[in-house]
Amino acid sequence: MEYINTGKYFAQVAGSLEAHAISELESLGAKVLQEVPRGIRFSCDKATLYRIVYCSRLLQRVLAPLVSFQCHSEKYLYNQASKAIDWTSLFSPEQSFSIDSNVSNSHISHSLYAGQLLKDAICDSFRSKYGKRPDFKTQGAVIGFNLHIRENWATIALDVTGISMHKRGYRIGANLAPLQETLAAAMIVLSGWKGDRPLLDPMCGSGTILAEALMHYCSIPAGYLRKDTGMAHLPDFDAELNSTIRKQENTRIIPLPKGLISGSDISVGSITYAEENLANLPGGENVELMVTPFQDLHRQSGRCIITNPPYGVRLGNDESTKTLYHELGDFLKQKCPDSESYILCGNKELVPELHLRAHWKKSLKNGDIDVKLAKVIVK
Fold it and tell me: Is 370 helix (H, G, I), strand (E, B) or coil?
């Protein structure tokens, strides 16, 4: 297997978070080899890989390359996929599998077709040995593979977690279009908050920012609740070492002081979701939640305020959005002295609607939407 021989892996990252993910990987012990759009090539030993998978807050997926080769035809892709990998040694015919494929600037020009060829190669390998094939699933598969072909160079990799790493496992319920966990974690990182002052999300929705702040402060590994399915299928998986790494990281978890993190929302349903989600995390009961519109909150001095105001279809129309941002800016100015605020604005045109000077603005991606994180300081 290629990754066993080279010690090299590939991390998929949400757009705009590459530089921050590099810093995180290096802090966890990896050697970064190359940054590409939405991805990072890195090397590490086995223990570091297990630590990255368990602790990374910013990565989407980690891929372990199984084989790479020049690929100039559909037939060659099928033949190499059939011969170069013993698929039956990775999983059983009773287990399901999935394939994520991406093709660019290559003879094979359709990602779905490339994925179909790989699927056929895997299924035919099982039929040849067992007389039956495993089930293919687009969601909820036991093991996942990634096929990437760029400029006729193909790489087939195993998804180390088998599930997107943003799925922490604490979210039971959520409103429409909740903030992705990796973006919320990035907002915490960019704010520089380390628990030196109380953190408030005055429009907390189902509590994603609050949960990520809790995990960040308390050193709760991002994979603490996540049900990874891919790791055990690595040919060189060391279950004892993986268990040791996880136990080591769990000993670093510290309690959350009551009142250090708080959130409010106008919606009873949102606060109910937030309570249920936070209850799944150690210390979640110490996050203070209120069903209150931010306009009615009492004075909030000396706070770190991190929030994702609704915008666009979630609010109704442009004028409603502008009014909300006006009121948010007024709230920060009138009720939040000596505070730093980090506002995830739906687009750059909304930043001036706060009527406050932005100390800085950073471009981020919320899914496929270009957004701005604005830092506002009120003396």
Answer: strand
Give the separation between CA 53 and CA 61, rounded to whole angstroms: 8
Which tens digit of pLDDT belongs to each residue from 5-54?
A: 999 999 999 888 999 999 999 999 999 999 998 999 999 999 999 999 99
Residue with structure tokens 């070492």?
241
Q: How far apart are CA 220 and CA 191, in angstroms?
A: 18
Sheet (strand 261-265) strand order: 288-291, 261-265, 199-201, 304-307, 339-345, 369-378, 358-366
Cα gap 334→217, rounded to integer Å = 28
Q: How far is CA 353 from CA 105, 200, 320, 330, in A?
A: 42, 21, 12, 10
Task: For 11-57, give the DSSP string.
Answer: EEE-TT-HHHHHHHHHHTT-EEEEEETTEEEEE--HHHHHHHHHH-S
Q: Span 266-285, mean pLDDT?
A: 96
Residue 15 has phi, psi (to 5 degrees) of -55, 140
Pairing of strands 339-345, 304-307: parallel
Q: Kindly state the helix (H) or strand (E) to which residue 305 belongs, with its residue range.
A: strand 304-307
DSSP-based three-state secondary structure for 252:
coil
Any idea which residue has 């890195």 for tokens? 42
Structure tokens that stand for 40 in this block = 């990072």
Residue 363's Cβ-side half-sphere holds a number of Cα atoms within 13 Å equal to 8
The enclosing H or E element of 231 equals: none
Cα→Cα distances 341→313, 360, 361, Å: 24, 11, 12
Neighbouring residues of 329: CB distance < 8 A, sequence distance ≥ 6: 353, 354, 355, 356, 376
The model scores a pTM over 0.70: yes
pLDDT digits (tens, 9 = 90+) for 161-179: 999 999 999 998 777 667 9
Cα separation, 116 vs 120, in Å, equals 6
Quote the tokens at residue 352.
């001036």
